[in-house]
Amino acid sequence: MGGSAVVVGAGIGGLAAAIGLRLVGWEVTVVERAPVLADVGAGISLHANGVRALDALGVGLGAAARPQYEGGTRSPDGGWLARMDGGVLERELGTPIVGLPRAELHRLLRAALPAECVVVGAEVTSVARTGSGRMRVPVGDGVREVDLVVGADGVNSRLRAQVFPDHPGPAYSGSTVVRAITERPVEVDTDFELTWGGGAEFGHIVFADGRAEWHAVYNAPAGVRHPDTLTEMRRRFGAWHDPIPALLDGTRPDAVLHHDIHELVTPLPAFAAGRIALLGDAAHAMTPHLGQGACQALEDAVTLAAALAAGPTVEAALSRYDAERRPRSQSVARAARRAGRMGQRLAHPLAVAVRDTALRLAPSRATVRAVLRHADWRPPGLG
Questions:
Q1: 371 lies in a domain?
Q2: How many CB atoms lie within 10 A of CB 5?
Q3: Which of 133, 160, 280, 374 is deepest in the core (most CB within 10 A)?
Q4: Which domain does 38 fall in, by range?
Q5: Which CATH number belongs to the domain containing residue 140 in this structure?
Q6: Quick check: 152 and 285 in contact, CB under 8 A?
Q7: Which of 322, 328, 324, 331 has its CA nearest to residue 276?
Q8: pLDDT digit string, tens, across residues 18-55
């Protein structure tokens, strides 16, 4: 089954969905409200499920990604709470966790699409069903009639609000995140680390070119910003163990990004309605505590394409997509929320001490099992 589709949103999930739809014979237009597809963002880690989804779409990461073999979780004084061997994950899943700049992944996805496939500087605020059952989508100064609309328009999705007007929408998680990529390569002993304090987390991943992405997640009221965010990070985390001070020192102030973390605490009743499908953050925005947000969006994209390839109708395909994706992605979202509550969100000193002791006593296999629980996913065939 083929047809025509408009994908709303040119983020990772939207571009991946467009690639998948084209692979199964659909004519696709991606509509992005930003006037320029800028290569922005910090870093991203992809677990095996995300890498497998990209492979299914024919998007290889190649030398752009660096395997994350050595690392784990530490306390602010530098003591190890848990170590993780990426080699074990590679043996179990065929690939370790990999890290790369988000902008590089975005570039690879864009390169897999014809340039004319993406329309920038155009906003889709609503869609309507025609008398023939197709979808009418305003794009720029014109209107397109298509067989399918894919809402990949992020956590504040307007299409989600149209399809489910009674849904409360995203809620503030209670945590805010600051991210940046260092200006130059840095000397670090591990590929990745997380450090847990009271109500705060600092982590890093190292890229193939030696630069590193770091992030700081901490409890804070929504909307709080700082005149000099990098100086504030030094105040909060500058006394934590090496290489955290070096990571902060290797960062330009204008490279720092600061966003509050919102999630869909109330799960959607469906990921599709009629000929509209939702994916990525529009469908299941989650906290970053499992590193699964982008991976779940990539899974959505492949599963949607496979469902539409099997047909027999758009409505039947979207019903199958919903049945396959909603239970899994909402389960991952709940697990991410729980991980945050037991990890970064935990603030009481006694609770933090109990958590740290439990992590030190847990067998290393437990950390691997926690990753396998969500990363061991295989994509459906697109043929």
A1: no
A2: 27
A3: 280
A4: 4-69+95-170+263-342
A5: 3.50.50.60
A6: no
A7: 322
A8: 999 999 999 999 999 988 776 667 999 999 999 999 99
